[in-house]
Design brief:
single chain; alpha+beta; Arc Repressor Mutant, subunit A; 2 domains; three-stranded antiparallel β-sheet; globular; binds zinc ion
């Protein structure tokens, strides 16, 4: 048994629940699943929010995102081998998710410029197929003050080709960021999320 503090256990449980159902778990389920007091769960959720790991509706406090997952539909679908799917917050999050979960999956999205389908298969924690082969990702670096869900994620998207990315970019007022190949974007996603649910290099399902 690997010891984790409450914060890590709540985050871990939240990510696993999102992966299974595509939805955030409730405070009540966290209390029951982790045998923690409601107060401790709330404390952990507040810490996760202030650290930028989850995003809640400012009014209702409902969890809208636990990166890399989105509770509401986005254009980035991650479909697992059994057919069930979840929504990712951005292109990098979608590509990082299969490695985070140590699961084979297909990322399904669309070109921001022409709406062409983008399909990327990840098998055994490696890229297997990229369609179309020239697909690219536009990556926007966030300012330190930025709420990722609102300002960064909507600008990290797939394109079917470098040409369509450049055409889109030419029409933006300000598009600070960089072009990434799918290989580069996949490596970036794996760096951010790859070790989140692993202990000693092994997937750790609590
Ligand atoms: Zn296109």
């Amino acid at each position: 048994m690997v010891l984790m503090d409450n914060y890590a256990r709540v985050y871990h449980q939240m990510l696993l629940s999102f992966a299974r159902t595509g939805q955030p778990t409730t405070t009540e389920s966290l209390v029951n699943a982790l045998a923690l007091s409601r107060e401790k769960v709330e404390q952990s959720l507040n810490l996760l929010e202030s650290g930028g790991s989850i995003y809640r509706d400012p009014e209702t406090r409902a969890i809208l995102a636990a990166y890399p997952f989105s509770a509401t539909p986005t254009q980035h679908v991650v479909r697992f081998a059994d057919g069930h799917f979840v929504y990712a917050m951005c292109a990098i999050d979608a590509l990082g998710m299969p490695v985070m979960l140590d699961a084979d999956a297909r990322v399904e999205s669309r070109c921001t410029r022409c709406d062409k389908e983008i399909r990327i298969t990840v098998k055994r924690n490696a890229l297997e197929e990229v369609s179309p082969p020239g697909a690219r990702v536009w990556y926007m670096q966030a300012d330190a003050c930025c709420v990722a869900a609102l300002e960064q994620c909507p600008s990290i998207n797939f394109f079917c080709s470098t040409e369509h990315l450049e055409e889109w970019r030419a029409e933006q007022d300000s598009a600070q960021g960089m072009l990434k190949t799918i290989e580069g974007a996949f490596a970036h996603g794996a760096r951010i999320f790859g070790k989140l649910l692993k202990q000693d290099g092994k997937f750790h399902a609590l």
